[in-house]
Write a sequence for this structure.
């Protein structure tokens, strides 16, 4: 069917709840969705595509026909949608790879037993603890046990490698007993292994209780060396436990879900808490999220698929933003759990901190896939939320004006791409339309020239041919107002804000034409904006000083008879500094365009105070 036929068919659908199934010419299901009113929802796809995200436009282009299933309620449609997506895995739905298999902790069967994490149980004579659902938990449990009880994590084989090398760093930071160096007996080593196994089986609380009893017994029997060892191990377990508990002491059972986007990719991270401790962490890369994804719809779709793959559903799910159809999702999750499930949006306290932790993990995972740093994406995501932007501003331009009492007016433009300075795109401007001091007029001129260049080569993808996602001006509401009219003139809808400094010239807030937005409490965003403001100020003032210095040099040269402004600039352009002009002889001076012999002799005489003509003739 063509687009007109598809729309005609959609307009004949009933105003009933249901599920719609989009198919391509090969009868493949490419998208499944639910609707409160099928006619209204499906017809939107085949009307104007101006408001559609890029991913939706691509999907619609591949639709040949569609089917639908009428349901009794919107909730029934949601349940059916989840089931069909899990069954058919359509291309244009968010698809999560369920790699959540069982995993194990292995204890080798030899004299010098080793403890390790394994994804599969093998028939190799070793003992296995598990199975565990959370690979993250099992890995961390092994790491903790090895550190607490001083067991090796290297690939050395004992007793083969005993005495063949020096102890590694882990021994020196007291995280390994260094059996490789022969510093521990087999009996003592295996006693540590037994304690580690007890720790892994019983957990920290029971392990501490058992070890405390053994410590007291050893002290009563005057076995003070053994008592001291047990005391140190108990202390190590407590330190590990405190590090985990400090994350969210008041959060008992809850999941935190956050999403971060960059370009056409997104990453969801889920952090899971049980009994006040973090017990699992997962992240999911979405490779084809589209340029401007609908985040509420994405969150809703993610929650449906994620909890379709999980039986263990908590009473509270904390999100970093709104999700579509939250009431329906809560009802569906509650039926799966058998008890009420609440979806929340924390604004303060421990709940907010774990959501921010989840967002940091999503940013780090997405940054690694792009070769960036996680804190840079976190800062951009935080800045977007602070300014109410639809997505993180990947390409930011910032402008500053610099002058000296109204003379040598210049401006600097710096670019930050993915949270980093992109110096290839930096630009410098000389103010041309007026002389004297007028920061607002200067800013208008600079932005006008910048976007005139864009109009000459729109969407070329580099330099002036790329539009920014955000413009930050070094200044307050006046600069923002001055530039707003420029954007309107060119018909550009680009977020525009000013960066305000305090009395100590430190970044204090961001402002638009209406009000100031305090940013000090948002650490990552504050650091990024401060960095941008410092960089644009440095760049603009550096250009101003260069211009002012050249003009000062030029003024001194124009004092020479026969040297005007043009010849002075030519000399400075050729020699760069006054010092080099002084060192030049007459022949070198004459190599400069516009400098004839009389002019060259005048310059040489000015700096050397000699009768150049007589000296020159004597040499001849």
């Amino acid at each position: 069917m063509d687009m007109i036929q598809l729309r005609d068919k959609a307009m004949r659908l009933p105003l009933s709840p249901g599920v719609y199934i989009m198919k391509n010419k090969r009868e493949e299901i490419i998208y499944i969705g639910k609707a409160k009113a099928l006619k209204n929802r499906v017809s939107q796809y085949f009307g104007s595509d101006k408001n559609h995200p890029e991913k939706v436009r691509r999907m619609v282009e591949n639709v040949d026909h569609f089917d639908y299933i009428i349901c009794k309620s919107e909730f029934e449609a949601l349940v059916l949608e989840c089931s069909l997506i899990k069954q058919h895995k359509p291309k244009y739905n968010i698809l999560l790879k369920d790699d959540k298999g069982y995993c194990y902790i292995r204890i080798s069967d030899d004299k010098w037993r080793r403890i390790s994490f394994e994804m599969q149980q093998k028939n190799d004579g070793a003992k296995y603890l598990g199975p565990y659902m959370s690979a993250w938990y099992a890995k961390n449990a092994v790491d903790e046990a090895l550190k607490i009880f001083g067991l090796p994590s290297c690939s050395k084989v004992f007793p083969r490698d005993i005495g063949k090398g020096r102890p590694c760093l882990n021994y020196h930071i007291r995280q390994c007993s260094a059996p490789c160096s022969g510093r521990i007996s087999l009996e003592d080593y295996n006693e540590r292994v037994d304690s580690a196994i007890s720790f892994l089986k019983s957990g920290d609380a029971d392990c501490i209780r058992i070890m405390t009893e053994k410590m007291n017994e050893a002290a009563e029997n005057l076995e003070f060396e053994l008592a001291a060892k047990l005391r140190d191990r108990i202390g190590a377990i407590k330190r590990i436990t405190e590090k985990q508990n400090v994350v969210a002491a008041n959060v008992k059972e809850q999941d935190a879900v956050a999403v971060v986007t960059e370009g056409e990719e997104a990453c969801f991270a889920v952090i899971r808490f049980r009994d006040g401790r973090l017990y699992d962490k997962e992240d999911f890369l979405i490779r084809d999220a589209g340029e401007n994804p609908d985040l509420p719809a994405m969150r809703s779709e993610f929650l449906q698929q994620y909890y379709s793959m999980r039986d263990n559903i908590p009473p509270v799910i904390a999100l970093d933003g709104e999700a579509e159809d939250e009431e329906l999702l809560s009802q569906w999750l509650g039926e799966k759990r058998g008890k009420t499930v609440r979806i929340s949006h924390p604004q303060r306290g421990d709940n907010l901190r774990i959501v921010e932790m989840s967002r940091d993990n999503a940013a780090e995972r997405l940054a690694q896939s792009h070769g960036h740093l996680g804190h840079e994406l976190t800062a951009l995501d935080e800045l977007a939320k602070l300014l109410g932007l639809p997505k993180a501003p990947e390409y930011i331009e910032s402008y500053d004006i610099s002058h000296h009492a109204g003379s040598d007016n210049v401006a600097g433009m710096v670019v930050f791409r993915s949270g980093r300075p992109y110096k290839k795109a930096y630009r410098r401007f000389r103010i041309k339309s007026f002389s004297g001091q007028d920061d607002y007029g200067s800013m208008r001129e600079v932005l006008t020239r910048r976007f005139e260049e864009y109009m000459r080569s729109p969407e070329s993808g580099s330099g002036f041919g790329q539009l920014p996602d955000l413009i930050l001006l070094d200044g307050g509401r006046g600069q923002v107002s001055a530039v707003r009219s420029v954007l309107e003139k060119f018909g550009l809808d680009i977020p525009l804000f000013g960066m305000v400094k305090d009395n100590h010239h430190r970044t204090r807030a961001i402002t638009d034409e209406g009000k100031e937005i305090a940013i000090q409490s948002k650490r990552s965003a504050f650091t990024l904006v401060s960095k941008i403001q410092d960089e644009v100020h440095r760049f603009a003032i550096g250009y101003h000083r260069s211009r002012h210095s050249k003009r000062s040099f030029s003024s001194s040269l124009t004092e020479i008879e026969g040297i005007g402004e043009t010849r002075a600039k030519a000399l400075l352009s050729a020699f760069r500094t006054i010092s080099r002009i002084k060192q030049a002889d007459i022949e070198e001076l004459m190599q400069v365009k516009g400098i004839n012999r009389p002019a060259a002799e005048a310059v040489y005489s000015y700096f050397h105070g000699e009768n150049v003509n007589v000296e020159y003739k004597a040499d001849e």
In short: The first strand starts at residue 18 and ends at 23. The CA atoms of residues 131 and 157 lie 26 Å apart. The chain has a mean pLDDT of 83.
